[in-house]
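Researcher: Structure for this, please.
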Amino acid sequence: MVVVVALLGAIGVAARQSAWPVPRGIHEPLKTPAANPLTAEKIELGRMLFSDVRLSRTSEVSCATCHDPARAFSDARPLAVGVRGRIGRRHSPALINRGFGDSFFWDGRAATLEAQVVMPIADPSEMDFTVAAVVSRLKDDAAYAARFRSAFGRAINEGDIARALASFVRSILSGDSRVDRFLEGDLSALTRDEQRGLSVFRGRGLCTACHVGSNFSDERFHNTGVAWISGDTAVSGSFSDRGRGGVTNRKEDDGAFRTPTLREVSRTAPYMHNGSLATLEAVVDFYEQGGRENPNLDKEMMALRLTPADKSALVAFLKALTGNAAR
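Model: Predicted structure, token format:
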């Protein structure tokens, strides 16, 4: 179930990470900085900003344009589309459960949500604006003036825009899937096929090499070969996107991307950093074949020799990680 915590007004305001409620099946606290504790007021303000097209230069797109709540805050298009129809270089990742993250974007170039949420505003291929310009545009809006006073006790400013947006994203949570109920002892929650898929997931599918923990992600960077463009031989070629290597500037990191959560994965197609795989079946086939060979391919990547029944069961299990979405 995707839960936007702001809807749960009766739970009160938390000043500590461990005090803010998380959905069933999640066994870790939200990573909330001491300088920006979660409050219902910040979350609601962040929700307003998230859907406001005035955060873009041309007032064409908002954060929600590429992070659709109906799609677990992901995008149906392979690549993000910004102002004036500009095409980005990567697929818009789902924002659910990013409050448990250690770094942000596919390449991990942002260390905090507060840093991440304002980068699309300045990106020429996304919103092509500045946070300072957003402040100027919104400062005379009476509704925003009241919201900022309520949330922060002061007038609109750049830092609080980042804090409010980060608070909203931190509140977008997913849990309470049928998988969670099965793992907690309700053996009727999964069909036999889905249970077989869980066995494949944990066993010969090698999925838990990267998709671990209650959020089904190790938050690390892995090279599966998606970005590799083959040359004349198996090891010659180039990367269409350096991924993590573009941040660290280390060749061994080229082609590596952060492991996404698998929660709500049935609603976040297409898949991979470039949106190149349209279905879960295609994703399973890609991994079953061992990815795409390249000089930096992760050691966990290998041909799996799964049967058609294994692959079908694995897809069924992944779909069972979808809950009853509340948007």
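Researcher: Any notable elements?
Model: Residues 4-18 have pLDDT under 50 and may be disordered. Residues 63 and 259 are 22 Å apart (CA to CA).
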